[in-house]
Design goal:
This protein is an alpha/beta fold. It is 40% helix and 18% strand. It has one domain: Rossmann fold (3-Layer(aba) Sandwich), CATH 3.40.50. The chain contains ten helices and eight strands. Strand 3, helix 1 and strand 4 form a beta-alpha-beta unit. The protein is globular. The protein starts with a strand and ends with a helix. The model has no long low-confidence stretch (mean pLDDT 96).
């Protein structure tokens, strides 16, 4: 566990040594295990650090706040404490928004960004009905399973879905709802235009790639846009080998 400056604790997990230094940030109601297959594909020659953000996974008991600013501050403190900066930050969904926040707040610690199905820094853009649907998944295993099942291009493997649902089940409802309001209403899109670090924005084909190009990649001055075929929002689970290859190309 890592104790941040405000006294809050969160978990992180390290694998490999030498080579590139990578920091993996999971999405909403997830934990570090979503990266298992990507990290395995990268091999032991890469130093990978994956976090469980406050309110998630092994950090589910950590006190708040549960918002983008606090998550990014936690990552900044962890990078500095481990002495691994600058790092390539690999973020999925909400985790990509956290990565953008970190790159804005502490550019000296970010050497690159891999943003997979990123929630834009200008917010999620959900309709009231869509937002209510997502809020309803917090603390409700059946609703969470229905939501997560729809995040794949094809019917997900039952074991994989069970693992994702187990991670969602560890997220307390209050933490999930507080973080949802933060990332779904994010409002720092213009600030991302100043991010100088190279970035790869990965847009799953079955997950609104046009939005990722227009609202994320187009704002970053040194971004490369990649559309990944035949996968959904959880491309990191459906296409881990291809994600690992893209990481190596940054």
């Amino acid at each position: 566990m890592f104790r941040a400056g405000d006294g809050g604790e969160f978990a992180y997990f390290e694998q490999g040594s030498g080579g590139a230094r990578l920091l993996f940030v999971h999405g909403w109601q997830a934990d570090h295990t979503v990266w298992n297959d990507v990290v395995a594909a990268l091999g032991s020659g890469t130093r990978s650090v994956a976090v469980d953000l406050r309110g998630s996974g092994a950090s589910s008991g950590a006190r708040g706040p549960y918002n983008l600013e606090r998550f990014a501050a936690d990552l900044r403190e962890l990078i500095e404490a481990l002495g691994i900066g600058p790092v390539v930050v690999v973020g999925h969904s909400m985790g990509a928004t956290v990565a953008l926040r970190l790159a804005v707040d502490a550019p000296e610690l970010v050497s690159g960004l891999i943003l997979i199905a990123p929630v834009p820094a200008g917010g999620g853009g959900f309709s009231p009905r869509g937002a209510d649907f997502l809020r309803a998944t917090a603390g409700d295993p059946a609703a969470a399973r229905k939501w997560l099942s729809a995040m794949f291009a094809a019917e997900p493997d039952a074991g994989v879905l069970d693992r994702l649902c187990a991670a969602a089940g560890k997220t307390p409802r209050d933490a999930a709802l507080e973080s949802f309001e933060s990332w779904s209403n994010a409002d720092f899109a213009e600030a991302t235009r100043a991010i100088a670090a190279p970035a790869i924005v990965v847009a799953p084909e079955r997950d609104n790639p046009e939005m990722y190009q227009r609202k994320v990649a187009a704002l970053l001055p040194n971004a490369r846009f990649v559309e990944l075929g035949d996968c959904g929002h959880y491309a990191i689970v459906e296409r881990p080998g291809e994600i690992a290859k893209l990481i190596g190309e940054l």
